[in-house]
Amino acid sequence: MMKKGMKKKQSWASCCNWGGGKHHGHMGSGYFLGFLGALIYFLQTSTGFGNSILAILKAIVWPALLVYHLLGL
């Protein structure tokens, strides 16, 4: 029996579940596949070291720009 003012112990899974109990792992894998495809595309079209760094940065930002332009229609 718990005394007044004592809190019930919570497991790590229940106290640190930021998604409200729902798992959204498929969204991360979708983002990763989009990132990987964009990275391959941009690296194939780049020439030189500076352009390769720019291609990596473009691949990171590409999904956000896609969503921005799709919602702007």
Any descriptors?
73 residues; mainly alpha; 66% helix; elongated
List strands and helices in order, with pairings.
Blueprint lengths: L11 H4 L9 H21 L3 H23 L2
Helix pairs in contact: 2-3
Quick structural summary:
The chain is mostly helical and 73 residues long. The protein has helices spanning 12-15, 25-45, 49-71. Helix 2 crosses helix 3 (49-71).
Q: Your description of this structure?
A:
- The model has no long low-confidence stretch (mean pLDDT 77).
- α2 (25-45) crosses α3 (49-71).
- The radius of gyration is 21 Å and the shape is elongated.
- The chain has a domain at 49-73.
- The chain has 73 residues and is mostly helical.
- It contains three helices and no strands.
Q: Got a strand count?
A: 0
Overall geometry comes to elongated
What does the radius of gyration come to? 21 Å
Tell me about the biggest sheet? none
Strand content: under 5%
SS content category: mainly alpha
Distance between the termini: 59 Å
Put simply, the count of helices is 3
**What's the assembly state of these chains?**
single chain
Order of helices and strands: HHH
Q: What is the share of helical residues?
A: 55-70%
Low-confidence stretches: none
* Arithmetic mean pLDDT: 77
